[in-house]
Specification:
Elements: E1 9-13, H1 18-28, E2 32-38, H2 57-62, E3 67-71, H3 76-89, E4 91-94, H4 104-110, E5 115-120, H5 130-137, H6 162-185, E6 189-194, H7 195-205, H8 208-215, E7 230-235, E8 241-246, H9 249-259, H10 262-272, H11 280-285, H12 287-298, H13 303-312, E9 316-319, H14 323-327, H15 330-334, E10 339-340, E11 353-354, H16 378-386, H17 390-399, E12 402-403
Parallel strand pairs: 1-2, 1-4, 2-3, 4-5, 5-6
Antiparallel strand pairs: 3-12, 7-8, 8-9, 10-11
Helix pairs in contact: 1-6, 5-7, 6-7, 9-13
Length: about 425
């Protein structure tokens, strides 16, 4: 963990993926992120996958390096404590509805320069999640084999909740922008980041929306081919599947040499009256003929031989792995400085943990820190932030308003 933000504290009242991701990225850069949950755990506390003791590996990884406070957020006193923590700290990340007890108006009444970052579903207040905004943006109907009938073919959902993670990253950026503005002007900010706007906005920023409007129709499905350039999956003689991409002249010439298809390429160019070295357009337009030529060459070579050739020519390629293979790959994980030694995870399961995705040469990244146990820092934070005495905290614990660490929790296998 870097210490670039070690003078910043943030209260996070979150659940699921996008909002915890925003806090995680700030924590990985050194911010003190205090996650406040209901005393029984937030809506995502038992999110799959669960280990034998019922600890969520998803929750554990999205909340690394944070502190945890557990309050009875269904009670007036618990909500008031949460709001006071946010006001004293000055920065809030949440995905609670605007009309909740943590509305920006309520927070600004406590502190004029308050910064509230709120992750929403849609801009008009409708609920949404990654898979529903993805459906709305049209991407699932671009995916699938190219020979599917457009009239009857089903959508193809992606497994990764990409919009959640993109929204979390954008939200962390928006928080820092609001902090920068406050540092210059003294003004607080309410920042709303709708998940749906991130999805439809990315459709626009990528040029895809303009393309659809210009062409007046939908884009055809391309299977595993790259839209607008040369790239697809191929299979070697020994059955290995791999992806190649050629978006630059060097990448293209390297692939032609590595696959040994120069003569066939020349014959195809003469037949079609084109030069494939001229760029993406002729390669994409005649992709079916090119794919057949490259696959014919791949049929004669084992993957290790072909991979060595592609590496020597500076090609862009990668073998397909299962997620289990990726998790055990030495190049991707064991020998990658992104990963550090396993901290003492609440699950009790030891495995590599990520440092910050950003690499800052000359700065010590530090080892990954564990996620907290639910309520692990309740007493510490209430004493330091709100100045509560041990006696007052004890009263709140006895009343059920505050919960302490659930480190000794033992749940049946779920």
């Amino acid at each position: 963990m870097y210490n670039l933000l070690n003078d910043l504290s943030i209260i996070e009242v979150s659940s699921f993926v996008a909002s915890p991701t925003a806090g995680l990225y700030c924590a990985q850069m050194g911010a003190e992120v205090i996650r406040v949950d209901h005393k029984a755990g937030g809506l995502d506390y038992n999110r799959y996958m669960l280990n034998a003791e019922g600890r969520s590996l998803s929750w554990e990884n999205l909340n690394r390096a944070k502190k945890s406070v557990a309050l009875d957020l269904q009670s007036g006193e618990g909500r008031e404590l949460c709001a006071e923590l946010a006001a004293k700290t000055g920065q809030l990340i949440t995905n609670l509805p605007e009309a909740s007890f943590l509305s920006h108006a309520a927070m600004a009444a406590k502190r004029a320069d308050m910064i509230s970052l709120r992750i929403m579903g849609w801009h008009d207040g409708r609920q949404a999640m990654d898979f529903t905004v993805n459906a709305a943006a049209g991407y699932p109907l671009m995916c699938g084999p190219e020979d599917w009938d457009p009239a009857t073919a089903p959508p193809v959902n992606q497994v990764l909740p990409a919009w959640d993670f993109i929204t979390g990253a954008y939200s962390a950026f928006a928080m820092l922008a609001a902090l920068h503005h406050r540092g210059r002007t003294g003004e607080g900010s309410e920042v709303r980041v709708p998940l749906g706007d991130v999805a439809i906005g990315t459709l626009a920023n990528s040029g895809t929306m303009a393309e659809m409007l210009y062409r007046g129709a939908d884009r055809e499905r391309l299977g595993n081919a790259i839209w607008g350039a040369f790239g697809r999956d191929f299979r070697s003689r020994d059955g290995a599947r791999f992806m190649v991409a050629a978006l630059t002249p060097k990448q293209w010439s390297g692939l032609v040499k590595a696959f040994g298809v120069g003569e066939g390429m020349a014959a195809l160019e003469a037949e079609l009256g084109v030069r494939f070295a001229d760029g993406d357009t002729p390669r994409f337009r005649h992709r079916a003929r090119l794919f057949a030529l490259f696959q014919q060459a791949a049929d004669t070579l084992d993957y290790d031989t072909l991979a060595a050739r592609m590496a020597a020519e500076g090609c862009t390629f990668e073998r397909y792995r299962t997620a289990h293979e990726a998790a055990n790959d030495p190049v991707l994980v064991a020998d990658n400085p992104l990963f550090g030694p396993s901290p003492a995870n609440p699950s009790g399961f030891a495995y590599p943990a990520t440092r910050s995705f950003a690499n800052l040469p000359g700065r010590e990244a530090g080892d990954p820190r564990p996620a907290p146990f639910l309520g692990e820092h309740s007493e510490e934070v209430l004493a330091e932030r709100l100045g509560l005495s041990s006696g007052e905290i004890g009263r709140l614990v006895d009343a059920g308003t505050v919960a302490l660490s659930d480190a000794n929790r033992n749940r049946d296998r779920t």
